[in-house]
Amino acid sequence: xxxxxxxxxxxxxxxxxxxxxxxxxxxxxxxxxxxxxxxxxxxxxxxxxxxxxxxxxxxxxxxxxxxxxxxxxxxxxxxxxxxxxxxxxxxxxxxxxxxxxxxxxxxxxxxxxxxxxxxxxxxxxxxxxxxxxxxxxxxxxxxxxxxxxxxxxxxxxxxxxxxxxxxxxxxxxxxxxxxxxxxxxxxxxxxxxxxxxxxxxxxxxxxxxxxxxxxxxxxxxxxxxxxxxxxxxxxxxxxxxxxxxxxxxxxxxxxxxxxxxxxxxxxxxxxxxxxxxxxxxxxxxxxxxxxxxxxxxxxxxxxxxxxxxxxxxxxxxxxxxxxxxxxxxxxxxxxxxxxxxxxxxxxxxxxxxxxxxxxxxxxxxxxxxxxxxxxxxxxxxxxxxxxxxxxxxxxxxxxxxxxxxxxxxxxxxxxxxxxxxxxxxxxxxxxxxxxxxxxxxxxxxxxxxxxxxxxxxxxxxxxxxxxxxxxxxxxxxxxxxxxxxxxxxxxxxxxxxxxxxxxxxxxxxxxxxxxxxxxxxxxxxxxxxxxx
Amino acid sequence: xxxxxxxxxxxxxxxxxxxxxxxxxxxxxxxxxxxxxxxxxxxxxxxxxxxxxxxxxxxxxxxxxxxxxxxxxxxxxxxxxxxxxxxxxxxxxxxxxxxxxxxxxxxxxxxxxxxxxxxxxxxxxxxxxxxxxxxxxxxxxxxxxxxxxxxxxxxxxxxxxxxxxxxxxxxxxxxxxxxxxxxxxxxxxxxxxxxxxxxxxxxxxxxxxxxxxxxxxxxxxxxx
Lengths: 532, 224
Description:
Chain A contains 17 helices and 23 strands. Chain A is an alpha/beta fold.
């Protein structure tokens, strides 16, 4: 139930519903898209970015908050630990226990390597767990990896590294099969045909889902498999610094127990960074759909050790974060809500755009509707736009919402809003780090040997914007590949003497560039305690 | 001026705004959370919490990130509960109720008290899905348990020592792998890719100049 302040606008939405359902809104032209992005997308606000003064990407602009942690001090010095006495020794060290990390660990184990996972919260505390809508794969007869490639390449503004993107789309059906064989319950018809829908910017219906718990279903299955294989998982333990060997190859990490602050050394033949995204950095003050630990740790670890970033200036603002009620402000409303037929409607009850443009275009157009055009609804924390969920039941039949998006129903029901009968209020929320560490097609960083990366910490797979359903896909495809390749590489690696010399070297650069900061990084967790 | 309510975190009283969730109220009170906080959106089960409203006999359970504070709420978080997780090889297990008898025999000691269902933070019919698991009805168990976030509150209340979320996890994996219908178009496509059927098309895309890619993208046909 909405309070009095929303009633007037709500009545307009309801009165226009039949008409709006019938409406087929035009898609924007390439020129229209470019214009709305340049004027309203947060990535184009120049004063929110700073040029890096040191490191391999010196001169590149990144979000100011990211520049600060990339150019901050290490939490330790080389003297803080004794590198000759590692607490752990393994072939493959996986940093991060989300979808990419667990997929990597399973495949490294499958390849016969000793592998361990360290994760700063619990295994499964990750954005994977929160991915709702689905996972793309071109496995229907009217589709092909080539069509998938074109959709993703165009959606990412023609900036993806093609060797990474071709791997993504060509390995996608095999990834779905791998997950199915592990017992992931995809939505299927009685004859086994996958139930697939559109996502923003897809030209074929290739979004596979497990209701709207797609990521949770994948994550809990992978976690279960890691436990079945008895792969060691060290939880509540963060990697705070990479360790290189005397030849400059990645050879482990310094770990910190999140509760006792004890420092430990992990020595490894190869290292996989699978630390995920950065939503909890709250770039430009945006709320986020990300999990508690999404603080760009992997980018910091890699950058300080000398690894290169790609497209770190591009972030994804998911068009539909919750704008009301405030208790779930910024939480994700899956794109699947629009895939199933709900349209975006402004305060006057008007459909103002096609609901399935790419995410960056949709987010920018919503921001324009709420700012320049002033057709937003006042939600208390700012303006919002209606997402007319009752349309789903009218289009798909009664019961569609409970069958296809039960998590969304549950999330709003707790606050007295029944999305089957009432629309919801949304506004863009910080969702995904498009950029990250630069890798080759074997998932190894382009300038540190034996350092692999998978998942959201990678840059270049999607270019400068990512399509819905390509992230769950990339954590599986590149997670698996990183695991296999890191295991393979470990077989003919002999680790030299361990060093943390890069810390002092980086400190010199900080001083040399005249950067004055008291900040230490990685940040590890946001601080939401009240400041009096 | 926002209205304040009294809450008791582990018995200690704090005054917090009434519009906060239990999780944000703890942060308002000054807790820098490490445990008991994960996705903050109701999917991960990290923030299982039990509470009692003063004067009320009933002990309630919830997710701290999804529940608003109330006046006189006595709160204890349950950031970890020692669930029993049996390791198994999904490729080798029997696909009938004997797998439950082997791995989780305690489910047959269920006394039907329904404490699990009453405590479920997701409002699931937990006792029912355990009954399905007992009978080897994995598909029904999978469906009934699908929204489980594995927070473990049900198990904390179980006099028979059942680890309900792990039982359901096993049932879902059996259902997904063995009982759900196979997918022909997926098998076909995996084979076509292995056979190299798309190599030429992809090769062409790898080489194409950006301007031609733009043409291709902007004029592609979109399935209705």
